C-alpha cells in the first residue's frame, strides 16, 4: 500500500530544550511583576490591540525582543523555539505586545536576512532595545489576497527612490517609526517580478497617515498615503526585483506562530474564572474539555512548524494549515464560551470583566481568519501542496 | 473473492483490494473492482518496542483497516500483562475493563487475612457477569480482564472458550463479542493483584490505542479523497480544480493532521505517566472522537455516490471512524474528565507541561 498522502507534511516531534523551560519560568516571574504593576490585563488579541511601548522596553531589557537576532546586532542569539516560548507566555497572559510585534516577528528577521550590513547595524540593535517599532506596508485597496497586484510605485531618482501610492490596513502606522513597504520598481510582464521592499520612515515628508477605525471604534489601522516620498538608496531592503521572493519567504513565520491560535485564549481563562464561582455542569465541562483538547492539539502542530523552521526548513504548507485551524479556533472559542455560559456581551462593562472581554473578542472575531492571508486562499495552498507531493 | 475472516464468516475486504480507476474507465468493470488482491498486513512490533513505534504501527493498522486485534494486542494487552508480571501469550490478544464484574476469591477460608488487611496467598478467583463488546474476542488467544476484587483491583486472563460467547459487531463489521462468565474459576497462576494506577493505565492505553487507529483511518480518508478528486473529472476538469472542493478538502486534511498531532503528543506522556499522561491521552481521545464526524462527512461528500457503496474502500475507513469514536470512551466521557481539574490559573500551565 502506498505511503500516506499526509506523510509529506510531517510535523516533527518537539522536545523543548532545557533552556526553554528555564526561560518559561523567568517569563512567568516577569509577568507576575507586570501584573502587580497593572500592565498585563489578560485581554484578547493583545498582539494587535495591546500597545504599550514602556512594556515593550522592559521586555527588551530582559533580552526578549528580537531575541533570536545575533548578539553582534544587539539580539540575544536565542533559538526560534526559545522565542516561541516567550511569545506564547506573553499572549496567553494577554500582555500588551503590539508595539514591538512586527519589528520582533518580521522586520528584524527580514533585515537580518536581506539587509545591508549598514541597515543591520542601524536597525537591529534598536529593534532589540524596544526603541524602534515597525508596521507592515503590504496591502492596498485593490491588493488584498492578490498581493502581487500592488500599485504603489517606486521611481528612480538621483540618489534613491520616490514612492507614490497608498497602503491600506497598516496597523500602528500612526504610532510606529517605520514601515516595510512593498512597491513596484519595474513594469515587468510577470506581476511577481519587478517588486521591491523599502524601509520607509513614517515621519518623512510626503507620508500622510489617515486613520481607519475598526467597527469597535478602535484606531489600529490606517491608510498610509505615500505622496512622492523620497527614500534614500540605503533604505532599499534586499535587491530590486526580489520583493516577492522576500515577502513570501516570511510567510511561514507569519502564519504558524502562537498568535494564530491564542488570540482569544484569555477569554477561555476568564470563562474558567466565572465557572469557579458555581458548580459546573457536565455539559459545560464537556465543552471546555473539547476546546482544551483542540487548543492542545493545534499548539502541537504550531510547535512542529516552529521546530521545522528552527531546523532551517520552509514548512509553508504546514504553516497555512496551522493558520486555518488556529484562527478558526479563535472564533469558535468565542462562540463556544458564549454558549457555555450565556452572557450578554457588553463593551461598556468594567474593563476586564467577562462581559467586556466577550464583547471585545466578538468585535475582533471576523479579523482572525482574514489577517495574514485569508483562510480560503490558505486552503488552496494546502490542497495544491498535497497534490504536488503525491 | 479475497477476504479475511476470523472464524465467523464476516468478510473483511482488504483496503487495497479496490481499484476504482477501472470502475470509471470501464463501464463493465464492476465485478473486477473487489477482486484484486493486495497485502493489508502490518508487522506487529516486538513487545519491547518503544511507545512511539507502537503508536506509529497502530496508526498504520488503522489506515489499512487491518482485520484483527492489532492495536488491542500491541498497545493494550501485551503491555498490561508485562506490567502485571504475567506471561505474554503468542497470538492475537484482547482486553476488557470491567469493574462491574462480580469477582470473589475462591478460597477465602484457606487464605487468612494478612496483617496488612490483604487476603492470603491464594489468588484463585470466581468470576460472574458479562464482558460487553470485547473487541475480536472470538479471535483472541487470550482476553486480559481488569476488574475489582474484594481487596482491590485485579488483572486476570481467560480464553474465549471458557465463556459463553454472543457474537456482535460494530459498524465496520469488526467483532465486538459479549462473553458471559458463570462462576468461572480463574486459577491463581492467571491472576495478579494490581495497583489502582495500573487500572487507570489500562483505560488510558485503550483510549490511546483507539485514538491512533482513528488517526490512521483519518489518513486513509485523506489518501482516498485526494486520489479521487485528482482523478475524477466532471465538467471537463478534475474535481480538485473546483474551489468549493478545495475548501472542503483542505479542512479534511487539517482535521486529519490535527488528530495525528494529538496522538503523537501522547507518546512521551504515556511512558512518564501521572497527570501529564492523563491530560495528553484524554485530549487525544477527545480530539480523535470529536474530529471523526467532520472527517467522515467531508470524505464522503467529496467522493460522491461511489463512496457510499462497497465498490470503493472509503467505507472501510469511515465506518471505523464512526465506531472507534464511541469505543474506549467517547468525547463526552473524556472531555469533562480533561476539564474538571482545570482552573483559570492552572489551564495554561497544564497546556504547557509537555513540552
What does this protein structure show overall?
The complex is a heterodimer of chains A (390) and B (355). Chain A is an alpha+beta fold and 390 residues long. Chain A has three domains: 18-133, Acyl-CoA dehydrogenase/oxidase, N-terminal domain (Butyryl-Coa Dehydrogenase, subunit A, domain 1), CATH 1.10.540; 136-241, Beta Barrel (Butyryl-CoA Dehydrogenase, subunit A, domain 2); 247-389, Butyryl-CoA Dehydrogenase, subunit A, domain 3 (Up-down Bundle). In chain A, 47% of the residues lie in helices and 14% in strands. In chain A, the strands form two sheets. Chain A has a four-stranded mixed sheet, with helices on one face. Chain A has a four-stranded antiparallel sheet with strand order 2-3-7-6, with no helix packed on it. In chain A, strand 2 and strand 3 form a beta hairpin. In chain A, helix 1 packs parallel to helix 4, helix 10 (282-310) runs antiparallel to helix 11 (316-340) and helix 11 packs across helix 13. The longest helix of chain A is centred in the C-terminal third of the chain and has 29 residues, at 282-310. The model of chain A has no long low-confidence stretch (mean pLDDT 95). Chain B has 355 residues and is of the alpha+beta class. Chain B has two domains: 20-44 and 198-351, Butyryl-CoA Dehydrogenase, subunit A, domain 3, CATH 1.20.140.10; 86-193, Butyryl-CoA Dehydrogenase, subunit A, domain 2. Chain B is built from eleven helices and ten strands. Chain B has a four-stranded mixed sheet, covered by helices on one side. Chain B has a four-stranded antiparallel sheet with strand order 2-3-7-6, with no helix packed on it. The longest helix of chain B has 36 residues, at 196-231.
Amino acid at each position: 500500500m502506498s505511503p500516506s498522502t499526509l506523510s509529506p507534511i510531517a510535523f516533527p516531534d518537539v522536545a523543548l530544550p532545557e533552556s526553554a523551560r528555564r526561560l518559561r519560568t523567568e517569563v512567568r516571574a516577569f509577568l507576575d511583576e507586570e501584573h502587580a504593576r497593572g500592565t498585563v490585563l489578560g485581554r484578547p488579541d493583545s498582539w494587535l490591540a495591546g500597545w504599550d511601548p514602556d512594556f515593550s522596553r522592559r521586555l527588551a531589557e530582559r533580552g526578549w525582543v528580537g531575541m533570536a537576532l545575533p548578539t553582534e546586532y544587539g539580539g540575544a542569539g536565542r533559538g526560534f523555539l526559545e522565542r516561541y516560548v516567550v511569545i506564547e507566555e506573553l499572549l496567553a497572559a494577554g500582555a500588551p505586545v503590539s508595539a514591538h510585534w512586527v519589528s520582533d516577528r518580521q522586520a528584524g528577521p527580514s533585515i537580518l536576512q536581506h539587509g545591508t550590513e549598514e541597515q543591520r547595524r542601524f536597525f537591529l540593535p534598536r529593534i532589540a532595545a524596544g526603541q524602534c517599532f515597525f508596521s507592515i506596508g503590504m496591502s492596498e485597496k485593490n491588493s488584498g489576497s492578490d498581493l502581487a497586484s500592488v500599485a504603489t510605485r517606486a521611481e528612480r531618482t538621483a540618489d534613491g527612490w520616490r514612492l507614490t501610492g497608498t497602503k491600506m490596513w497598516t496597523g500602528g502606522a500612526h504610532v510606529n517609526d517605520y514601515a516595510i513597504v512593498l512597491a513596484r520598481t519595474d513594469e515587468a510582464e510577470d506581476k511577481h517580478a519587478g517588486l521591491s521592499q523599502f524601509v520607509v520612515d513614517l515621519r518623512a515628508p510626503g507620508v500622510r497617515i489617515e486613520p481607519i477605525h475598526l467597527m469597535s471604534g478602535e484606531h489600529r489601522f490606517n491608510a498610509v498615503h505615500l505622496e512622492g516620498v523620497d527614500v534614500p538608496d540605503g533604505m532599499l531592503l534586499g535587491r530590486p526585483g526580489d520583493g516577492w521572493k522576500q515577502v513570501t519567504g516570511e510567510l511561514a513565520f507569519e502564519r504558524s506562530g502562537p498568535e494564530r491560535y491564542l488570540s482569544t485564549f484569555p477569554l477561555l481563562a476568564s470563562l474558567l474564572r466565572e465557572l469557579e464561582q458555581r458548580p459546573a455542569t457536565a455539559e459545560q465541562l464537556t465543552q471546555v474539555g473539547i476546546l482544551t483538547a483542540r487548543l492542545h492539539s493545534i499548539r502541537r502542530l504550531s510547535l512542529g512548524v516552529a521546530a521545522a523552521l528552527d531546523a532551517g526548513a520552509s514548512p509553508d504548507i504546514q504553516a497555512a494549515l496551522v493558520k486555518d485551524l488556529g484562527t478558526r479556533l479563535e472564533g469558535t472559542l468565542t462562540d463556544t464560551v458564549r454558549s457555555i455560559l450565556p452572557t450578554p456581551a457588553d463593551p461598556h462593562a468594567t474593563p476586564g470583566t467577562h462581559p467586556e472581554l466577550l464583547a471585545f473578542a466578538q468585535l475582533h472575531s471576523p479579523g482572525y481568519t482574514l489577517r495574514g492571508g485569508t483562510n480560503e486562499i490558505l486552503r488552496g495552498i494546502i490542497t495544491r501542496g498535497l497534490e504536488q507531493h503525491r | 473473492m479475497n477476504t479475511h475472516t476470523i472464524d465467523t464468516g464476516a468478510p473483511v475486504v482488504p483496503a487495497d483490494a479496490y481499484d476504482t480507476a477501472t470502475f470509471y474507465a470501464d463501464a463493465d468493470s464492476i465485478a473486477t473492482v473487489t477482486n484484486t488482491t493486495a497485502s493489508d498486513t502490518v508487522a506487529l512490533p516486538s513487545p519491547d518496542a518503544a511507545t512511539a513505534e507502537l503508536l506509529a504501527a497502530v496508526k498504520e493498522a488503522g489506515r489499512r483497516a487491518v482485520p484483527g486485534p492489532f492495536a488491542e494486542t500491541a498497545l493494550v494487552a501485551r503491555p498490561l500483562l508485562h506490567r502485571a508480571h504475567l506471561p505474554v501469550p503468542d497470538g492475537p490478544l484482547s482486553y476488557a475493563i470491567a469493574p462491574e464484574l462480580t469477582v470473589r476469591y475462591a478460597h477465602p477460608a484457606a487464605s487468612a487475612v494478612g496483617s496488612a488487611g490483604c487476603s492470603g496467598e491464594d489468588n484463585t478467583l470466581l468470576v460472574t457477569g458479562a464482558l460487553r463488546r470485547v473487541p475480536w474476542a472470538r479471535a483472541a488467544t487470550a482476553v486480559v480482564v481488569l476488574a475489582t476484587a474484594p481487596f482491590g483491583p485485579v488483572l486476570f486472563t481467560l480464553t474465549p472458550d471458557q465463556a459463553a460467547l454472543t457474537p456482535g459487531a460494530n459498524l465496520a463489521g469488526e467483532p465486538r463479542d459479549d462473553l458471559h462468565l458463570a462462576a468461572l474459576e480463574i486459577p491463581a497462576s492467571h491472576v495478579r493483584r494490581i495497583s489502582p494506577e495500573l487500572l487507570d493505565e489500562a483505560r488510558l492505553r485503550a483510549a490511546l490505542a483507539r485514538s491512533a487507529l482513528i488517526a490512521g483511518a483519518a489518513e486513509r480518508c485523506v489518501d482516498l479523497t485526494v486520489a479521487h478528486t485528482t482523478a475524477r473529472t466532471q465538467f471537463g476538469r478534475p474535481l480538485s480544480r473546483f474551489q468549493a472542493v478545495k475548501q472542503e478538502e483542505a479542512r479534511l486534511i487539517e482535521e486529519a493532521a490535527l488528530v495525528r498531532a494529538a496522538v503523537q503528543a501522547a507518546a512521551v506522556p504515556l511512558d512518564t505517566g501521572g497527570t501529564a499522561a492523563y491530560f495528553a491521552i484524554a485530549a487525544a481521545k477527545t480530539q480523535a472522537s470529536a474530529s471523526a464526524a467532520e472527517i467522515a462527512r467531508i470524505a464522503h461528500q467529496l467522493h460522491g455516490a461511489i463512496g457510499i457503496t462497497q465498490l470503493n474502500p472509503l467505507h472501510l475507513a469511515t465506518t471505523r471512524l464512526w465506531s472507534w469514536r464511541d469505543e474506549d470512551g467517547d468525547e463526552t466521557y473524556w472531555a469533562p474528565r480533561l476539564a474538571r481539574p482545570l482552573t483559570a490559573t492552572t489551564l495554561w500551565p497544564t497546556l504547557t507541561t509537555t513540552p
